[in-house]
Specification:
Helices cover 75% and strands 0% of the residues. The chain has helices at residues 13-49, 54-65, 68-84. This is DUF2312 domain-containing protein.
Length: 88
């Protein structure tokens, strides 16, 4: 019962070693990702401590990740919805 990428039978020691190494790499990267997420949280906490609005900072970070055209389109749709609901 072998899945994709699985060598059945004798001589699969190399495949087993490769799989173990890949899993260990993923585990290391997951730990690094957790460390980076902790660092980002610390920066937001620091910003909050000096009086910045963290929710707005997160929104700005999201907007800066967007392509300018996508951001403009988002803003136009948002403005259309706000107008339709009388939120101006």
């Amino acid at each position: 019962m072998g899945g994709a990428g699985h060598n059945s039978g004798a001589g699969n020691g190399n495949a087993d070693d490769r799989l173990r190494l890949l899993i260990e790499r993923i585990e290391r990267l997951e730990e690094e990702k957790k460390g980076i997420a902790d660092d980002i949280r610390d920066v937001y906490n620091e910003a909050k401590a000096v009086g910045y609005d963290v929710r707005m900072m997160r929104e700005i970070v999201r907007l800066r990740k967007m392509k300018p055209d996508d951001r403009r389109e988002r803003d136009m749709v948002l403005e259309t919805y706000r107008s339709a609901l009388g939120l101006d």
